[in-house]
Amino acid sequence: MNETRSSLCNARLTYSPKLPFALREGANRVRIEKGHATSPVSNEDQISKLFPVTCGAPVVHMERNDATLSKPLKVGVLLSGGQAPGGHNVISGIFDGVKSIRNDSRVIGFLNGPSGLIEGDFREITSDFLSDFRNVGGFDIIGSGRTKIETDEQFAKCAETVRSAQLDCVFIIGGDDSNTNAALLAEYFVANDVFCSVIGCPKTIDGDLKNYYIETPFGFDTASKTYAQLIGNIARDANSAKKYWHFIKIMGRSASHIGLEVGLQTQPNICLISEEVESKGMTLAQVVTQFADVVEARATSGKNFGIAIIPEGLLEFIPEFKKLIAELNDGLVELVDELEELPQIHDKVIRICDYLSPKSSNLLADLPSTIQMQLLLERDPHGNVQVSLIETEKLLIELVDNELRHRPSYTGKFKAIAHFFGYEGRCAHPSNFDSDYAYSLGYSASILAKGGFTGYMASISNLADGVDNWQACGIPTSMLMTIERRHGKDKPVIQKALVDLDGKAFLQFKSKRDKWAISESYIYPGSIQYYGPPELSDSVTQTLKIDAQARQIKQLQAK
Amino acid sequence: MNETRSSLCNARLTYSPKLPFALREGANRVRIEKGHATSPVSNEDQISKLFPVTCGAPVVHMERNDATLSKPLKVGVLLSGGQAPGGHNVISGIFDGVKSIRNDSRVIGFLNGPSGLIEGDFREITSDFLSDFRNVGGFDIIGSGRTKIETDEQFAKCAETVRSAQLDCVFIIGGDDSNTNAALLAEYFVANDVFCSVIGCPKTIDGDLKNYYIETPFGFDTASKTYAQLIGNIARDANSAKKYWHFIKIMGRSASHIGLEVGLQTQPNICLISEEVESKGMTLAQVVTQFADVVEARATSGKNFGIAIIPEGLLEFIPEFKKLIAELNDGLVELVDELEELPQIHDKVIRICDYLSPKSSNLLADLPSTIQMQLLLERDPHGNVQVSLIETEKLLIELVDNELRHRPSYTGKFKAIAHFFGYEGRCAHPSNFDSDYAYSLGYSASILAKGGFTGYMASISNLADGVDNWQACGIPTSMLMTIERRHGKDKPVIQKALVDLDGKAFLQFKSKRDKWAISESYIYPGSIQYYGPPELSDSVTQTLKIDAQARQIKQLQAK
Questions:
Q1: Is 0.80 surpassed by the pTM of this model?
Q2: Do A240 and B83 touch (CB under 8 A)?
Q3: ipTM here
Q4: Which H or E element spans position B456?
């Protein structure tokens, strides 16, 4: 091992990501075919006013073509929001794409996220510089940030940056909000004669940016496999030691796609899906009862151990808890002075319970004191309760333990250990799938830029069918839009794709979970393999595989 | 993917572990050469009385031989204590070893640890049954347990079991205590005409069972690489987002070998080694100051992020904390009734502080209230404080945060996230190194059994030099022994091997850590690779490599 890089890093840097067939001879040998016109998810009237250029624009497909000549491009790229494995590959795909157009094309990278574009803070990305980042994890090549580009003033500053840097295109690699803002920026540039296109690359490790053309976000494969590795290892430990329950909270606040995927990959005893909890309108007590029932059923057969997976966002999907949070947010502001004068947390709870609706009051009063403290004391700069800081996995352990103690029928031993996995997966070295996918996304983005498209997102579809059959496309971002009321205003937003409770992936999980609950059907995926037989090194996620099968069946039925 | 096994599991089941040259033609083609006589680490007089048969017995080396004929063996095996990757391979090595002696040899597995031997609870291990467990993680093949075989009554019950099952040998795969008891059992069997040998296989993932012939425990390679994977991923996340400190507690209570190894593998900003903290006699406040100094130095260059590694056993290596725990253990027993009558934790702390020595009293009073609660409320069945339950990583975050708030010179932002990694690595699928090493250990153990050795442990040495050069040996367990006073009695124990502060591995780490503290020298090892180029799939740990180099230099100097 040299002192600056691991052996695996060194090996990955020399990996050649695979491209869809149409792109393999370079961007100049790609023809863009216009497909069907699109429409937003809903609120077409409002969306078309906000996105006059791109609303209703067609989906485009990329096909192999004869060689053409082109002028060089100068493009900029930025990373927005949380890390996802493959970010470096999107950038190397863009780089190799524009270089395949003309070798004197240039790429700059905006530093530390959207603020780099606003402030004109960037660095040139050269082949040499890039060579240290190909096929490895992280967003450290140019950094990321969470600044939102949404005000007219910010748009104007972006225009200034791209004009002074003479850019032909800006690529924004980000999640739903970043892509919404990218589409608005594209419209602003057109309306203000800034001759620079804006292309989005969908990045959301939670998996909530999804439609027919975005089958999965890049990084989801790697992150879910990393979490599944850890869960599998813990499950094997539980099944060997036979004395602990492990309550494992897993990344995914706004949707439970990761939870569902790792559930399918590891077959735990319990795996909650937030969307189902919400659709059933479950109370916290009902969730706890569901856990305790499984713990008791296993204890009856002498099994005082098990694995439970809890999606990070669970509490916000429990209707009564959501209501409690909303009431607390109001109450904590209204009673701020009164509460400050009460030194003991116990007294604060009594005072605020008096303020809350009876149901919320009961819910709060029944929570363990550690959670009460978190709810009342840790607030964000706007004074709001920080739901993301609540240790849901520990809350559930405490509540389940308490419920079991009150069950005369329960005679087992409940010892539980809490885990939370999030940061462990976001910067893993991308799997071959994610390396190929992210690289292909970047490469197609460069072709959209060459074609002068703006307000589009790059897309690669048919992902479960092997790289040779991948389809490179572009879709107008407005196609994913709807209108939502936020802070009293109608705002265009990308519709969040939640776990589809009628979808095949969830139904398959649902049909098996009762068996998994009482047995030890654990699967131990082990660590991501980048080499070796293709069934190890090139596998896709369960969700992607099941979705693809469902799609095929639908297409066959339609014929 | 089939529904019962992952692709990687399927692939691993067909892996052929590599054996040292001398063993490759089977146990009947191995000659055992007696080497130098041994002596215990210290207290030879007492040890020789306790181990009359094996004390002073020679080290033995295994060499290739002409074919010999042998009678079949019937042997039993058990797993004791916490899981370590490779446990299944020790068993398959034993199985293949005794089967290579005669195909009608038989192996039984005692269920759920030492209690299976005491109670005569076992199952036959057949080739078919074993085929589901080769080269995969876990101890689930026959389960493990923590019962200690130490009383005469237990010895007698073990004798009954081996007599009734007509065993030629019992293999005990376990840590220091299990191997001590295995050696005592061996002596008991000899003294009581039980014609069954007892062979130990060293298993201790913490790495504290180590001498010239036990260069590393099996499983250490896999576990430390798994933790290093996670730390590397988190380091890359920190280096991309640039806003969090991650305080990562890492397995290793009685020694910091894992901490040192993952430190060398990932090059974090801070990596504490318990042994050093103890040898310097550091106070908790000094440890906190050391952390705060690095956080402040980084903040001065605008870096409000970093990675800190904390060994699980840290608090027990801080002399004043050890003293506090000892005093608390006495006080909590003495004041039990008084304390119970005080309902508020605050009042309990005041009362117990009054009991403690002034120094301990100050230390306790300065701890965060959550930690005070853990110390006073969570006690084991003997009424002792449960040090292992203390969330050291959170304690340090709170104390460092507090210290920084009181430093006028500090103007950074300190946001820290706590992690603990232990269960994530103990049942990982063993790396090729651990698969080969554990299998070879088991195989040599079978050869020791064939040779009629008892009170011996299997050993494979020269591990950093490639399997072709591995040396299969056997050593009398008494060679590792010393006498320790426990609960007022002189007891034979295996001397714990702590991190050697004069050893090359620690010195190398020490020479670099100041640079690592302020820079981002992070290395991102990524996940364990079982396939691909040998530098990825067959690498050894940093500690093993550095130790081997040091040994070579020593041998050259001796010439």
A1: yes
A2: yes
A3: 0.95
A4: strand B456-461
